[in-house]
Amino acid sequence: MRTARTGGRRRTPEWLAAALRPNPGPVPWPAAVRACVGVAGPLALGFALDRPAYGALAGIGAQFAVINDTADSYRMRVLGIAVPQLAGAVGVVIGAAVFGHGALAVGVVTAVGLASGLISSIGPLASAAALLLLINTIIEAGLPVPGPVWLAPALFLGGGAFVLLLSLLAWPLRGAAPERAAVAAAYRAVADQLAAAGGDGYETRRQATTRRLDHAHDLVLARRAGERSQRSAAFALLARLDALTPLLEAAPAAHHTGRPLPAAVPAAVRALADTIEGRPPAGGAGDPPPAGREAGRAERAVETALRYTASVVRGGEAAPGDRLGRPAPLPVRGRRAARTVLRSGAARRYGLRLALCVGIAQTLVSVVPVPRSYWVALTVAFVLKPDMGSVFSRAVMRAIGTVLGLGVAAAVLAAAPYGWWSVVLMAVLAVLLPVMAARGYAYQTTAITPLILLLSDVLNHQGFGLLLPRLVDSFIGCAIALVVGYLLWPESWHARVGDRLAAVIADAAGYAVICLAPGTAPRQGTGSTRAQGPAGAAAAGDEAPARARRRLYRELSAVRAEFRRAMTEPRPTSTLAAEWWPLVVAVERVVDAIIAAQQDVGQGAPPPPPAEVRAVENQLLELAAGVRAHMALPRVAAEHGPEDSPVLHVLREQVRAARAVATSESAGRRLGPGRRRGPSDR
């Protein structure tokens, strides 16, 4: 592992510095209080009833409920806590049934690892449930549990239910407040984006807007899925969220003028955010300012969009509901999830990878005649979660966090005799769990390690005797994950961003046709058609551009997250991801240019001929094919004929800039190993 030198001193590698950098954000004090009461409360009750082992089992359930208590919406909290807890209870039953059975335990834990890997590919909620299923199977297969068979899963569920109850105490008073706050936050993000139009900070603000919109849509649509009435609060919030669409489409056009918008424009949007939250607008009523006579098409588009948005927020005009689509019925989503699991080669490979590593770890614990604990397989399960970040960096962070966490546990065991002092210190450690989890994986591991150790010590009373073996077991688990689950699978340590980026570029090509040549169907295979289901683009109507734009920005946000994940890998993956980064930025600018051209046409500019739009589409599809095939592209001539449509001028420039990233000899390094020679190489 190479490190840079500065003034004769070694500097931390960039990938390690990125992984260790704490995530910014406020301290989640409500979650910290819930964690304190939720984890320490059951343990205190266990000591009070002279059944501390029962309190420890309930505390373990509460601890995992605290980790999964991350949603803002109360409805999402119910799902986010209850579904993983139910899966965890099943894991408790399975693990307790095979405790002490050697080879049988290896086979069962391996099978659960395979199932967990497959289920994880469905989505975040399924991934959390699958992880808890596997973790509890591993723990209970290695720890004796007191009482009858039904008691351990009941105590685990009881601890999780207690945390869920604490999370929902304010639901009768606050109702839809989290959803309203999320929609208002989306409005304020749009206001910041409009304020930055024409300046250098626009792209950063637009990315923040995408994150806020994604979050708001997830919350509101989850609430809307259970309501049919168009008079419901969720429908009104969805209409207000959809009413932002014209403003979102007008913003790129305003930015491309190079002139800032009047300060009254973002102020009016912030006033609408205050209205959504039910409080008086700051600074006045926030009416949209009229565009002056000297205003261009972009400024007039912003004014028209703002007046429409304001009329919807204030109830003067009804917005079409579900413009961006509502969730499919539960049976449909279930069938889609099953198809994803069965057809996805990546899901099958990950399931096999996880099962192989867990099986090896459990063999060391259950069959090999060397004293090893469940921490070996538990470490493997925590590390091999690629949907949570880089496997390599998670293994390193797990090792670092375990060392720090064991240091904390040693201090706690030294300072607190067994008994009520354990409850006090457990409460302090529980407060740190959500605070540290929000900062990053290494920080979460530092907090969770002493909690698990102290709760397990209540069950087996090993004290200091468990510290050094747990450290060794964690290092063994990290080694298994790194060697068997990472290094032996080339797809895990090669840059994986190329195919996903190519798919987004193809989506952008289809989006250009939908927006700028409505009577022309995108070429077969573009993302715009698959985004709309079996009916294809022809069924989209006026909603097609809005839905395609929403999906495209979501994909761009996901690609950015994938790049950040790749940058926490060691070389060469992190280096390649950094060199590909300019292409991500260029593609985002292409999408903004498409929207700006659409707005120009909507404000009276002559529409471009379909042949010119088709030429832009072909250039983008060629770029997507080149990225997917690791092939450098030929240059595109900069000259334009007198017949070229001026409305496409900025878009053509941005497409040329994107293709230039994949042009010339240096493209070979950016496009990765195995590059095929393109026309520009000859």
Number of continuous helical runs: 29
- State the shape: globular
The structure class reads mainly alpha
Placed side by side, the strands forming the largest sheet appear as 1-2
What is the percentage of strand-forming residues? under 5%
What is the end-to-end distance?
36 Å
Helix percentage: 55-70%
How many strand elements? 2
- Uncertain regions: pLDDT < 50 for 5+ in a row? 1-8, 525-541, 668-682
Summed over residues and divided by their number, the pLDDT gives a mean of 81
Radius of gyration: 27 Å
Largest sheet: 2 strands, antiparallel
Overview of the molecule:
Helix content is 69%, strand content 1%. The chain is built from 29 helices and 2 strands. It has a two-stranded antiparallel ribbon with strand order 1-2. Helix 4 runs parallel beside helix 6 and helix 4 runs antiparallel to helix 7. The protein is globular.
